[in-house]
Amino acid sequence: MKLYKLLSFSFLIATLTSCTFTENIYINDNGAGKFSVDMDGSSLMAMAGDQIGSQMGADAKKDIDSTFTFKQLFDAKKDSIAKLSPETQKELKKIENFVVHTKMSNEKKEFLMTFSTDFKNVNELQDILQTMSTLQKLDKGGSSTSPFGSNFGNNNSKLSYNYDGKKFTRKAIIEKQKAEEKAADPNQDMSKMVFASSSYILKYHFPKKIKKVSNPNALFSEDRKTVTIQYPFTDYMENPDKLNFDVEFEK
Predict the structure, then answer these.
(1) Highest-confidence range of 99-113, 135-149, 188-202, by mean pLDDT?
(2) Per-domain residue ranges for the chain?
(3) Sheet with 157-163, edge to edge strand ranges
(4) pLDDT of residue 141
(5) How far is CA 222 from CA 182, 209, 226, 227, 232, in A?
(6) Strand order through the sheet with 64-69
(7) What is the pTM (predicted TM-score) of this model?
(8) Which tens digit of pLDDT belongs to each residue from 126-136?
(9) Whole-number CA gyration radius for the chain
(10) Are 69 and 99 a contacting pair, CB within 8 Å?
């Protein structure tokens, strides 16, 4: 399956059903690590796999297990990218090494997609999700290029991460003007309906035991090195600052 067709299909999955999005961060002793966002759209495959299969044509008869980087996609669309502003090209450069891994099986009623990258310091990830919305500019329709749909990452906030070995912070600052413009968008109610039953999970893995977390709903792994917090996806989109929290570690 061609990369562009696969991304378009993932958009269909993300916009037609309740999905679970999991934002994972793995931090090693030296501060380096891995970042990923996982989307599980298997519920739609379970409900309407046959109908989706008919839209996919011959591709529906076989399982898909595909891995590619955004750099491959950008190389295929280099002529279009050359026409974009220098600022937009710089934004796309940030995510060219991200890997997209897709698994789809109509028989197993499975649809999983992971968007991931390695980092040397978690501070490198500032606004990385917002950069995803820049992918829309590669497509005149503005919807099918982003693996998780056109709205993903575009939640009118500036997101930053910080880790110094003693404390970890996830902080989103809302950009009021953009939030007001989005609230006035006539398509806003439709977006709320689409994602009303979806979830957004933060799952962060640290090299040290956690002493405390500022969010009272946080769950810990048995070794207290992993914290998991689940939110409605509407919180991620409409109230991104609700996902802010601090983690303190044992000495």
Answers:
(1) 99-113
(2) 3-198
(3) 157-163, 167-174, 245-249, 210-213
(4) 44
(5) 41, 10, 8, 10, 25
(6) 64-69, 99-105, 110-119, 33-40, 20-27, 199-205, 226-232, 219-220
(7) 0.82
(8) 878 777 767 76
(9) 18
(10) yes
Measured CA to CA, the distance from residue 40 to residue 43 in angstroms comes to 8
Residues 11, 143: contact at Cβ < 8 Å?
Answer: yes
pLDDT at 171: 95
Residue pLDDT, tens place only, 228-245: 999 998 898 888 999 999
DSSP state of 220: E
Residue 26 backbone zone (phi > 0: left; psi -120 to 50: alpha; other: beta) = beta
74: its two tokens: 């950008």
Centre a 10 Å sphere on the Cβ of residue 242 and count the other Cβ atoms it contains: 13
Q: Which letter does DSSP use for residue 58 in this model?
A: G
The region, left, alpha or beta by phi > 0 then psi within -120 to 50, assigned to residue 57 is left
Inter-residue contact 20 to 198 (CB < 8 Å): yes
